[in-house]
Amino acid sequence: MRSNTFPENLSQNKGLSIRIVSPEFGHIAPESAAQYGPAQRLPYYFFLLVLYGSSQEIIDRETIEVGKNELFFALPHQIRQLARSGNGADYYKLGFDDDCLSRLPRKFPFLLNPLNQQKISFPPDAALRLCNTFKTLNDLLRTADTDPELILAYLNSLLTEINAAYFIMHKKQTIGSLDKFLGFKLFVEDHLTDQPAITEIAEKLALSTDCLYRIVKQHSGVSPKEFITDRLIIEARRRMYNNQHTSVKELAFELGFNDPGYFSRLFKKVTGKTVASFYQDLSL
Fold first, then answer.
1. Where does CATH 2.60.120.280 sit in the chain?
2. Which among 47, 88, 196, 267 would be 20 to 30 A from 18, CA to CA?
3. What's the CATH code, domain 175-283?
4. Which residue from 251, 256, 242, 258 is spatially nearest to 275, judged by alpha carbons?
């Protein structure tokens, strides 16, 4: 289980770390919101369902437009900036931590984001079901002493609906192939700064390197090596945002690079910017 901490005093339930926000409920005071700044490294899972209108979400410096009957989600450790626009005329936001997730009766593969998409569109019937579940959670969390098991039951229903929608466009893909990709992605997350060799990962997943290449390419559009490189650069950006005083040398070693010069060249190749210029942009 990941060691995330839900922000202190943010939970709306005595037994769970969870909070919901809708146009008329759950907003924190402006002075409390100010302490989080214009951007935050998420310590919890975040969801935004737009029912009417639109919102512009920025996650790991990527801008995502969210419209009617669309859901945006973000995962722990991602950098989320405050939306440049409103959250639509009608919406629900939801945040909860790993403790909530661990108490649910099943796993939800979409939370590994194997398809690298953080926005899901829902047809009207599914959007209505999702809206009703969010509304029930909204009602339950109005009372701090609501039985946590009741909240978890509806949270489980909500994530089940989202998980099904996430994979619906890819249901023709073989389950075995997707399972292997999930295994690859989880292994990379767990050993990212060790920078495991592709042959080592293939061996752990009982695959040939050629087979692993085909599976990762199918589900991500890039090779296993490119996938790991991209993930390392994303992690570098997150750490640079979180600690703007870390030197290039320190950052390189933290990420498993023995040669800071190579890390600097790789960073510029992937991002188009030097580490120094990236730090400069953060300070603006």
1. 18-170
2. 88
3. 1.10.10.60
4. 251
Nearest to 113 by CA among 220, 266, 20, 37: 220
Q: pTM for this structure?
A: 0.73
Successive 10-residue mean pLDDT values, the chain, 284 residues: 61 94 88 68 93 90 91 92 67 94 90 88 94 97 95 97 85 66 90 94 93 89 92 88 83 94 93 86 68
Collapsing DSSP states into helix, strand and coil, what is residue 170? helix
Q: How far is CA 226 from the centre of its chain?
A: 20
Residue 239: phi, psi to the nearest 5? -70, -35
Cβ-proximal residues to 31 (8 Å cutoff; 6+ apart), any chain: none
C-beta separation of 184 from 201 below 8 A: yes
Could you give the CA distance from residue 42 to residue 31 in angstroms, rounded to a whole number? 19
Give me the CATH topology for the region 18-170: Jelly Rolls (2.60.120)
**Which residues of the chain are in CATH 1.10.10.60 domains?**
175-283
Q: Are 242 and 78 in contact (CB under 8 A)?
A: no
The closest of 80, 45, 37, 44 to 60, measured between CA atoms, is 80
* Burial class (CB within 10 angstroms; exposed 0-12, middle 13-18, buried 19+) of 33: exposed
Supply 72's token pair. 């945006």
Which ranges of the chain would DSSP assign to H, the alpha helix? 30-34, 98-102, 124-140, 148-167, 175-190, 198-204, 209-220, 224-242, 248-254, 260-271, 275-283
Report CA torsion sign: 98, 1, 115, 190: positive
Distance, CA of 12 to chain centre:
22
Residue linked to tokens 């592709």 = 198
